[in-house]
Amino acid sequence: MFAGFMIRAWEAATIVAVVAGVVGFFTVTRGSAFAAHALPNGAFAGAAGASLIGVNTIVGLGVFSLLGALTISALGRRARRDVATALVIVMMLGLGALFLSMTTEYAPQIYSLLFGEVLGVANNELLPTAAIGAGCIAAIVILYRPLLLSSVMTDVAEARGISPRRMELAFLVVVALTTTMAVPVVGSLLIFSLLIGPAAAARSLANTPHGAMAASIVIAVATVWAAIALSYATNLPIGFFVGTISATAYAAAQAWNAWRHAHPGIADAVAAGRAPVVTTSP
Known about the structure:
With 282 residues, the chain is an all-alpha fold. The protein has helices at residues 4-29, 33-53, 57-76, 81-102, 107-115, 123-152, 154-159, 164-205, 209-234, 238-262, 264-271.
């Protein structure tokens, strides 16, 4: 489990999970799950197009991800955001189908674009993955306060001179960069699982933005680590475990949240590390 190629898998998956945990927090908070689904689809089309013309797939991923982000932002000014996002998905899926019909690549390479190839990460891919991931984290750190304010209190943000459209564009660019980094590792379909599942679960477990973001990172890292270990042990696809564990984490967090509201005294004692006081009526 800890051979050379497995070590690279652990490292690449951890980088992707940390970034997905941070970006996913804002994805869920802003209600941008649909956009987080659309941009990886666009990235897949770009990777397929790059493969068709013999260009590095990272280039295609980056170009199409950014084009998708810019298109969603531009169309969102004149139409509902969900409609604009749906149009981008339709356009990108159409281009992806066209590129795939023209390519001569064999099925495993196409499969890796959709579901990733975390066990096939090469040494020369780790540095670009880490560099793009660091850029995403740096962007979130710089934009943190205005991005958080525009995510939870749009009217207050506007009153303070923060443009919601500019924040939306900036955030979509960060999601596009995250997509560019993550698709070669976990695929265009599974990055959506890491962006949404852990962050959605974390919001049910923490009461502060910093706490929710930290919990999102922990859950995302635990998800990919468990997925790699289980895939190695069972020889089943990593994607199956990533999606299943993410969904299970969200369901468990929702169940805990419901139980906590039904038993506030016991839940507060457990959270504080105290033994709950149980009283019985005479």
